[in-house]
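Dear colleagues,

For the upcoming journal club I promised to circulate an example of a predicted protein-ligand complex. I picked one with nicotinamide-adenine-dinucleotide because it came up in last month's discussion. The inputs are reproduced below in full, followed by the predicted structure.
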Amino acid sequence: MRKRSRNHESIMKIAVIGLGRAGLPLAGLIADNGFKVIGVDVDERRCGDINSGKNPIPEERGLDKLLEDHGGKNLFATMNYEDAEECNVYIVIVPLFTDKNKNPDFRILEDAFRSIGKILKKCDLVVLETSVPPMTTELSVREWLEEESGLKLGEFYLAYSPERIMTGYSVSRLKEFPKIVGGVDKESGLNALEVYRNFVPNLHLVSSARVAEFIKLIEGCYRDVNIALANELFKIANELEIEFYEAREYANHEYCHIHLPSTGVGGHCIPVYPWFLIKEMEKRGKIGCVRLMRAARELNDEMVDYWAERIVMDCVKIDKRLNEVKICIKGITFREGVKELYNSRNLALARLLMKKGLNVYVYDELLSKDEIETRGLKWIEAKDADIVFDAFELKFGGWNERGG
Ligand SMILES: NC(=O)c1ccc[n+]([C@@H]2O[C@H](COP(=O)([O-])OP(=O)(O)OC[C@H]3O[C@@H](n4cnc5c(N)ncnc54)[C@H](O)[C@@H]3O)[C@@H](O)[C@H]2O)c1
């Protein structure tokens, strides 16, 4: 690191705070590049798994090998921040949730940074990777660290580098996808660049932490708005009896990329990030700046109502009482191939139909009967249902397929 030994690789010890889907692949990769990594996580079981070389996220490709090689050795997981006090780099990837009014709830982040503040030393580098509203790093994070450590920025370094992984492909994304770093001041940015370059091959320094924070958010907003557009066009095409996918195939070219329609947008990221900007602008009385993003968010969330209505219309065609028609929602994870239900719109669709008093069942290739039933849902094999709605393909099956 700058202002430290030129031979910093030999003395650099890195702490990764938060060993979840985003933090653990990064921690494993840093260890794989020959560094001693202390991973801090509040989940005791997870720490135990990691230290015995067991992968707590089996669906994450390439992570098994990293943990087998480094778990409990180069990568040591602990619940105690004090175990990381010999580190000189602290990378934070804990979650930032929103409350019921869509405002960010900073409690987990604050707790993590105040804990780091207690062990922070002169010349240490702290990097936040969690997606946050703009200016979180230069304002809140700086304040928490300064208050707890008694140090001033300049005595320590502070930067932001957004996590841009995709669940399931995190290890390869970290190796290939461009990674951004930006410091709250020039020295911090250069320090972060120098450290990350040891384990991230495709790295870019931007002018500030604020720019780096914004880059991550606007990627999510772009996706959300474009998915909303696709959903709207899909509804129009359906109303006009136009084959949407055929039209989309030929409409898309170098300057036009119409996204795929869906039941909405799920997961930790895309449905959350637009709110960081919407709420910030609303706070500043600049509602006019975020009209499109707000409309897109609402439109995507309302797709479950649209699909529920279409499913009910299909049920009516069956010669059974409405509440006796066996409806199967096929695929309830938030994205195909990823065993995760966070903010799943497919699950929201199933629950909405249940609330309407319909006879709803669920099938998902990634979830066992037990895993479905413990969530208060009924399991069925698609072949035994009257109507099957494939929530990823947006296709109806079941009685239609049997020529009903
Ligand atoms: N998963 C993704 O695909 C993805 C993609 C891009 C960015 N991100 C970013 O990464 C952040 C974390 O996401 P994730 O998917 O890794 O979440 P996750 O829920 O899988 O993992 C979070 C981890 O943090 C731990 N934790 C919570 N509070 C803590 C504390 N005070 N100290 C230490 N550890 C603590 C939890 O026990 C958990 O293991 C997200 O908020 C998002 O900003 C995630």
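Two points we might discuss: DSSP finds 15 helices and 14 strands in the chain. The radius of gyration is 24 Å.

See you all on Thursday,
B. R.
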